[in-house]
Design goal:
Chain lengths: 70, 474
């Protein structure tokens, strides 16, 4: 039976001793080699392309409102 | 229609479709004043090799029963509350079927699917699930499995759901939304929605809801959202910058997500497409559609010359957790893959980077939204090498992911594995802080951990082109 006094005490059966760790196999990249992060130019290009797409979709949603179908 | 003719004192009839006159007798009995859609359904069954059929009487179809309770029970004119269901088979019925001492058996008879026949003059074709014809099947990307029970025999059919409008409770917009909802129910476990649910979801601030004289695209879009499938709307005149009707529609069709098209004040559903004359100067896309006023699996050889040309809008109801559109994902995936190729040029060379910009185009980007669990499960069938599969299987991903692939167009044309690189994007990601969850270029796979904003990577051995996650060929 677990009593209140047992709560918060270190486990007598630390789980680490019973597990085989499943890891990703990937190596963390240090901050200095942020390969895969976007350069400023690319981020700006991406932002502009997305802005154009969003404004085209907003326009379509507004223009299509009254388009009747039957 | 004579009400007395709808009830029979036996549960079913077997029909020999090969006998001359069988087709006409079915059309005479059920076609009534508008036999066009039924003709298309029967023609499809015959073209699929149907040799026999079973007419199941007193069938309580949830969709028709719902239409009856919501509308047809409220009219002066009386309508039966039960439907009939017509099942098609590629084989002849066995003689034992007529025996009163044997349980009915329909297994191993090449089940082709069913159509529910409603007792509605002018709108007999209800819920319909028929497999595409063999030649069309590989190009229908929006296929779902439906379980059927016929007189105690469990059967199943894989197809794209169809229903015709009755021009009372449902017009083309409702029928189209029903097809989408039933498909998402079967394919992705969405709720089973009945015609009354769809009618109730339509905003009624414009026009009368029931009977309906038609809807606007705004009403379709709002109804789709209320039904749990928020819709994206694309204008095609002109399409968004850098896009075309093909690119917009095919991204979703590749993902097994049906696309609604609006043109000539009508809507219909695209359920697949085929690339005709791939790699040649006159290459074009042949779309496959369900048209509730015409029929099923209809090929559209040239959308510019279509009866509903010009196609003006695409409406794409999406699963709730797909926040990001296909074109947004593709732009993000492309930019990140180019960045990864630049950053790692010293390690992995510049071949792929150079090929991306070569003219005429050798490579293209292809984007598909998939359930991440399906993506992981499919790694084995797609023969992804173990080292890469090990990384992807362990990676924590959103429920839906966009997979943006770099595709070798020539290999795709030859229907060979054609994917040279890919980026995986969280479909719920935030557009003001754009990232990819993972990218893979030749020789390297990288991962971004959104919980602590860290990057990690792993070198990969050279590997051949991979099979695409797309439901389309190649």
């Amino acid at each position: 039976m677990v009593t209140m006094a047992d709560m918060g005490q270190p486990s007598r059966y630390p789980l680490d001793e019973y597990v085989a760790r499943i890891v990703s196999g990937l190596t963390p990249q240090p901050e200095s080699e942020r390969s895969g992060a976007l350069s400023n130019d690319r981020a700006a290009e991406l932002g502009e392309r997305l802005r154009q797409l969003h404004s085209a979709r907003q326009l379509a949603e507004s223009e299509s409102r009254d388009y009747p179908v039957s | 229609m004579n009400l007395q003719d709808w009830s029979y004192d036996h549960p079913a009839d077997a029909v020999d479709l090969v006998r001359p006159g069988a087709l006409n007798s079915l059309l005479d009995r059920y076609g009534s004043s508008r036999p066009d859609v039924l003709t298309s359904v029967l023609a499809h069954a015959y073209a699929s090799g149907a040799q026999s059929a079973v007419l199941e009487y007193r069938y309580i179809d949830p969709d028709y029963r719902n239409e009856h309770s919501q509308f047809y029970s409220t009219t002066f004119r009386r309508y039966p509350s039960v439907a009939h269901r017509l099942h098609f088979f590629a084989e002849q019925m066995p003689p034992t079927l007529a025996s009163q001492d044997e349980p009915t058996r329909f297994n191993n008879l090449g089940y082709l699917g069913y159509t529910v026949l409603r007792p509605l003059p002018g709108a007999p074709v209800g819920r319909t699930m028929l497999a595409p014809q063999a030649g069309t099947q590989p190009h229908v990307t929006c296929l779902a499995r439906d379980a059927v029970n016929l007189l105690g025999e469990p059967l199943e059919v894989v197809g794209a759901p169809f229903v015709s409008q009755d021009a009372q409770m449902s017009v083309c917009a409702h029928a189209t939304l029903w097809m989408i909802a039933y498909y998402h129910h079967l394919a992705f476990g969405g709720p089973r929605l009945l015609p009354g649910d769809i009618t109730a979801a339509v905003p009624d601030d414009i026009g009368r809801g029931l009977p309906s004289m038609g809807l606007t695209l705004y009403q379709i879009s709002v109804a789709a959202s209320r039904l749990g499938y928020p819709a994206l709307v694309y204008g095609l005149d002109p399409p968004p910058p850098g896009e075309s009707p093909f690119r917009l529609a095919c991204r979703y069709l590749n993902s097994g997500i049906p696309v609604i098209v609006g043109g000539a004040e009508h809507v219909f559903v695209l359920v697949g497409y085929e690339r005709l004359k791939p790699g040649q100067p006159d290459e074009r896309i042949r779309f496959i559609r369900h048209d509730d006023e015409v029929g099923i699996y209809i090929g559209v050889d040239n959308y510019l010359l279509d009866d509903y040309a010009p196609w003006e809008y695409l409406v794409i109801p999406l699963p709730q957790k797909v926040y990001m559109s296909g074109e947004d994902a593709e732009v993000i995936g492309e930019v990140y893959l180019r960045q990864a190729l630049d950053d790692n040029a010293a390690k992995i060379g510049t071949d792929l980077r150079d090929r991306l910009d070569r003219k005429p185009r050798e490579l293209s980007f292809r984007s598909t939204v998939v359930l991440s669990n399906h993506f992981k499960i499919s790694l084995e069938t797609r023969q992804v090498p173990a080292t890469l599969a090990a990384v992807y299987r362990r990676m924590q991903m959103s429920r839906w992911i966009w997979v943006v692939e770099v595709v070798d167009r020539e290999l795709r044309r030859l229907n060979q594995p054609c994917v040279l690189a890919e980026a995986i994007i969280d479909a719920t990601d935030q557009l003001r802080d754009k990232h990819v969850l993972s990218w893979r270029v030749p020789g390297l796979v990288g991962q971004w951990n959104p919980d602590n904003d860290t990057l990690s990577h792993r070198a990969l051995d050279p590997m051949p082109p991979l099979r695409s996650v797309s439901k389309a060929d190649g």
